[in-house]
Automatic annotation (TrEMBL):
ATP binds at residues 32-39. Signal peptide: none annotated. It is found in: Cytoplasm. Contains large globular domains required for ATP hydrolysis at each terminus and a third globular domain forming a flexible hinge near the middle of the molecule. These domains are separated by coiled-coil structures. Required for chromosome condensation and partitioning. Belongs to the SMC family. The chain holds residues 1 to 180 of 1188 of the full protein. This is Chromosome partition protein Smc. Homodimer.
Length: 180
């Protein structure tokens, strides 16, 4: 499994539709301060279901919609699609390519899609659980995260190992079953 493409429109500083193609190997995003490098990684975390506006460096979810600039009106919808190569069936779906889309409107309405089919946030979270790529997984290591991991409590650190070992899915199911 690897990231193939990221399509972004109306998200943060990206008013116009942009497409980022990734190839196997190392990809680096370079650019001057404030040019939108971190906004790209925010877009990846957002489409994977990030719910915390603060962790996306805003105060409310609406802050991720293009807010307007000199001579350019604000937009009312933001949309991000992440396309993954799934030739190796790492994600439990029988498709060689899997795309996830998230859309949010200024009104607060939001939509999630898997391969263009509307779904729930839970479906996206479940799809990526134990894949290493979920919204809280270890594939995206933000600034300060390494220090946070090193100084965290053993129970917190254990969660990272559990995700890596692929047991989080079963643990979550067990907890849900016990609640019922
Ligand atoms: P640095 O090198 O300093 O880390 P960067 O390339 O990571 O910079 P980002 O933090 O990705 O830059 O982008 C910041 C820019 O995005 C700022 O100019 C900010 O005004 C703009 N921005 C953030 N949210 C929005 C929004 N909702 N609408 C318009 N622009 C936005
Ligand atoms: Mg940055």
């Amino acid at each position: 499994m690897f990231l193939k493409r990221l399509d972004v429109a109306g998200f943060k500083s990206f008013a116009d539709k942009i497409q980022v193609d990734f190839v196997p190997g190392v990809t680096a995003v370079v650019g001057p301060n404030g040019s939108g490098k971190s906004n790209i990684s925010d877009a990846v975390r957002w489409v994977l279901g990030e719910q915390s506006a603060k962790s996306l460096r805003g105060s409310k979810m609406e802050d991720i919609i293009f807010a307007g600039s000199d001579g350019r009106k604000q937009l009312n919808v933001a949309e991000v699609t992440l396309t993954l190569d799934n030739e190796d069936q790492h994600l439990p779906l029988e498709y060689s390519e899997v795309s996830v889309t998230r859309r949010v409107y200024r009104s607060g309405d939001s939509e999630y899609l898997i391969n263009k089919q509307p779904c729930r946030l839970k479906d996206i979270v479940d799809l990526f659980m134990d894949s290493g790529l979920g919204r809280e997984a270890y594939s995206i290591i933000g600034q300060g995260r390494i220090e946070e991991i090193l100084s965290s409590k053993p129970e917190e650190r254990r969660k990272i190992f559990e995700e890596a070992a692929g047991v989080l899915k079963y643990k979550t199911r067990k907890q849900k079953a016990e609640q019922k």
